[in-house]
Amino acid sequence: MAKAQDWLKATPGGLVCEPGDFTIDPTAPVDRAVVTHGHGDHARPGSTHVLATPGTIEIMRTRFGPGAGASLQPLDYGDWLELGGVKLAFAPAGHVLGSAQVVLEYGGQRVVVSGDYKRRPDPTCTPFDVVGCDVFITEATFGLPVFRHPDDSGEIAKLLESLRLFPERTHLVGVYALGKAQRVMALIRRAGWDRPLWLHGALFPLTDLYRRLGQDFGELKPATGASKAELKGEIVLAPPGALREAWSRRMAEPMRAIASGWMGVRARARQAGAELPLVISDHADWDELTATIREVGAGEIWVTHGREEALVHYAQGLGIKARALAMLGYEDEEA
Ligand SMILES: [Zn+2]
Ligand SMILES: [Zn+2]
To answer: What distance separates the 2 farthest-apart alpha carbons in the chain?
Structure first.
């Protein structure tokens, strides 16, 4: 049996599969890219051939236009193809729309590259699928036992409670444009808020794509150009970076909230200017990471990036071979 590290290599350019002649989530343009999902640290413009799920390809087209790649090949979850003797399929990762784990079979071995993932239900994407394998390659953005994300409905309840307590204030919620924005809107609707949601212009292109692919977020209105009076007591969603822009100072005593897994870290919430931090993460927390390692049944775990040491130690404690790849370029600011 071939050793996985002989045919799948962690390089500064991404995970390179030599017999298949492709790179997973390349950090710079390559001839053949396999892309796990549409976030900017994983999907980058300029590669020649791109293989990804149909959802990820649509996201790349929306973000990069013709720069998404010279040829874009969609592959549905569960379908197989062969590249240079390497069998490849995608399985849902539960991270954002279209997000995939890459399942590779070669030399009698199965390797699963998880990409970014979470195990919590998310109304805007297909849930994570546990795929048994010999080698499981995982991220560890929240790979410390202190990271335990609360239930997302409780976080949305905090937002709606604040609107009840401060009905004069515009509630400005910082959300990453891909995934978090749409998940938060879907959760707000589930919690029963039926007034229009107001959006920063930067959130529309991807939100419109989600709507074209069948998601319903109720009535959405552009916040740009709306008057101070119109936005009183309303929910406005914007990219986190826009919270400090002059744009938001025109609002009625804005209550600044940010939805992110990082909001569990008090210093980060303060630094980001979040008066109302909402711990809503699109990444696995410690319990989800460790449960996944147990469930996939792999004899070997590779940890790509994040807080790798504790997870490596945890896996070794279970008698699993584990190593940290210390890959750079996958920042997960969107967590
Ligand atoms: Zn991501
Ligand atoms: Zn990432």
So the answer is: 68
